[in-house]
Amino acid sequence: MSDEMKCGIEIHQQLDTRKLFCSCGSELCDSGTEVCVRRLRPAAGETGETDRAALEQSKRGLAYRYQRCASSCLVETDDEPPHPVNADALETALTFAAMLGSDVADEIQFMRKIVVDGSNTSGFQRTSLIATGGSVDVNGRSIGVLSVCLEEDAARKIEARGDEVVYRLDRLGIPLIEVATAPDMRTPEEVMEVALRIGTLLRATKRVKRGIGTIREDLNISIPGGARIEIKGVQELRMLPDFVRGEIERQKMLLRVKGILAERGAREIPFEPVDATAAFEGCASKVVKGALDAGGRVVAVRLPGFHGVMNGDGGRLRLGAEMAQYARTAGVKGIFHSDELPNYGIEQALVDSLRGFLGIGPGEAFAICAAPEKRARDALAMAVGRANMALAGVPEETRDPQPDGTTRYSRPLPGAARMYPETDVPPEPVSEERMARVRSSLPELPEQTEARLARDYGVNGQQASQMVRRGRDALFARISDATGMAQAAATALSNTYSEMERDGLDPDSIGDEDVLEAFAMLKGGRFSKEAMPLILREMAAGSAPGAALSKLGLESVGEGDAAAEIARIVAERADFVRSKGTDAIGPLMGPVMGALRGRIDGKRASELLSEEIGKILSGA
């Protein structure tokens, strides 16, 4: 696949410091209090032009409601100028840039990046260029780094309701390191490996947040003859290859559509909407009937030359889905097009009648939208615009990742017109002396940390690598030094945590101090090591260590009580024991551990079971 694609990646990692331009903490809140409602509009950037992405977003006419909580202040509501840049965040960015071998700027100048989707109350995001150049090595290949930036995270979307979107300000202003690579990756799997390496280097600084939502990846993908597409906000590392492969196939499909349209001599379609409501009287479609009952109209457009490419060749040609995604940005649920009809309650007779109404033949295409008239016309204008883009092939755009590995259109790809200088934050000089201090105290590289863990604590290389990749090595060392239980800690922070993640739990939501307390309880004999996975799972659900232990009923039992329970189990199966002899130990361990539910060490339980079986066999 190396000759089919180019891919670069942008990684955004939250830093574990206070916010970038105020002294508020960077913790997320479970609730907020509404403080203001705003509508945003784009301003011209430094070039004097208005960014196309910001312009399209502003046309959606949405209002934005903002909620404040404990981790937000007047800076987040844009009612107070930004404070001086957070020194810890800047130092971490300089350290990371030095780790990549990047060329650090001699002066840090913050810029305003115009964003009017409501995620910033001011209509822009503050961002600064820290360094350019550098590289990361992955599997013997050097992947170039274009830039390292320090910027503020956006507000958190809580819900969308009609023409309004609700944002919470707890996340707004959390410092982010953004590292952008060159488009040097050539396979979907390499994209994931590069993202993993960069993420591991970021975690090596010991100043980044962990857990779901604290690191996000943007993919920039193109193929020969295609265009650069940005897939923005991927959060699951394992999904990166799926998104890359899906985008490659999508662009190939669009290039094929372009070729078909060229062979037909298709030309740009003028937007000529037709009110076709009269043709749909008595239509059984729930979508159409619902729109008409609400006072809406059915608007149609002709699409000459586009038959068979909107949903053709067994579903492999999917231009119609692309058109529908553009149409939805006008606030409608979707459109219908002729390649998918008859369907959805629209019968063949109605399709034929509509063709006659529009004055087109059976081989020609059309699209319809049932909604309030203005929205229907706006939606079809977007759909026709997207159809015309297909004549040129693949349009540049930003797309949102979906849970199934597909993507949806979000907005046009932004450009340089969205940037202009930030006048409220003074430039920050970076002297040679300062960078010399940074370079003299760089953190261990991940491979060095892995070797140290294996050497000093006796854990295997796979566990050491897994803990380092996920930024859990420092916690592992604290647990091991405090309790001497290095192997139990390694098993929990690698194997158990991975199982929890596969089951949809977030182990990094458990505070380090709580994990340390749980291991102190284990060392003190409060429960057996077999119970640790259950305890951790309950802690990930929000329980404190002691409460988790009580809720699960996993307090260790005395040896006398355990021996009595094991004796009861063996006595009930005495005939089985006599027939199997010592081979009965293995089959009976299941009932024993099930009855004791992790309240006794497995090794000691096996010893007690052997003793009881020995009594039966000896006739004692």
What features would you describe in this structure?
It is globular and about 100 Å long. With 620 residues, it is α+β, with helices and mostly antiparallel strands. Helix 3 packs across helix 4, helix 12 runs parallel beside helix 14 and helix 17 packs across helix 20. The termini are far apart. Strands 1, 4, 6, 7, 8, 9, 12, 13, 14, 19, 20 and 21 form a twelve-stranded mixed sheet that branches. The mean pLDDT is 92. It folds into four domains: 257 residues, no CATH class; 124 residues, Gyrase A, domain 2, CATH 3.30.1360; 107 residues, no CATH class; 60 residues. Helices cover 40% and strands 20% of the residues.
Task: Fill in the keyword field for this structure.
620 residues; alpha+beta; Gyrase A, domain 2; 4 domains; 12-stranded mixed β-sheet; 4-stranded mixed β-sheet; globular
Low-pLDDT regions: none
Average residue-wise pLDDT: 92
Global structural class:
alpha+beta
Indicate how many domains the architecture comprises.
4
The percentage of residues in β strands lies in 15-25%
Terminal residue distance: 72 Å
Largest sheet: 12 strands, mixed
At a glance:
The chain has 20 helices and 22 strands. With 620 residues, it is α+β, with helices and mostly antiparallel strands. Strands 1, 4, 6, 7, 8, 9, 12, 13, 14, 19, 20 and 21 form a 12-stranded mixed beta sheet that branches. The protein has a 4-stranded mixed beta sheet with strand order 2-3-11-10, with no helix packed on it.
Describe the secondary structure blueprint for this structure.
Layout lengths: L5 E9 L18 E6 L13 H7 L4 E6 L18 H13 L3 E2 L2 E2 L1 E5 L9 E9 L2 E4 L2 E12 L3 E6 L2 E5 L6 E7 L6 H17 L10 E8 L6 E6 L5 H25 L9 E2 L10 H8 L3 E7 L15 H10 L7 E2 L10 H11 L6 E7 L1 H17 L7 E5 L5 E6 L6 E3 L6 E2 L2 H9 L5 H12 L3 H9 L3 H11 L2 H17 L9 H12 L8 H9 L4 H8 L6 H14 L1 H7 L4 H12 L5 H17 L2
Parallel strand pairs: 3-11, 14-19
Antiparallel strand pairs: 1-12, 1-13, 2-3, 4-7, 5-22, 6-7, 6-21, 7-9, 8-9, 9-12, 10-11, 13-14, 15-16, 16-18, 17-18, 19-20
